[in-house]
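Issue: copy button drops trailing tokens. Both records pasted manually instead:
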Amino acid sequence: MNSIFELLDCYDEKEKEIFELQISHAIQALIQIKII
């Protein structure tokens, strides 16, 4: 996990926000699939 955060530090703040948004959307999609 640390390597992922180190990678994120290399990104711009805006790119980091987009990346985190994509992760949260992916997690929500997985949760919805499990519910269905």
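Record 2 (pasted manually too):
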Amino acid sequence: MGDVLGMGVAEAAIDTDAFGTFAGDVPRVGTPTEVAIAKARAGMQLLGLDIGLASEGSIGPDPVSGLIMRDTEFVVLVD
């Protein structure tokens, strides 16, 4: 993929639990999109990069059936 886009992916050593946990021990502050952007910006700052990629998940009851849990992943690219 790096050959096509001319870029690669580097993992930033960030404690993402600081942005909120699934169990709710640490509450998420903001929407999933806002938190994903904050994670990307934190990685950009840590690695000294101008572009960042991050995700945030949101798990809850399925709004249609209410019988199953649904996971929605929000992925952002911050430039």
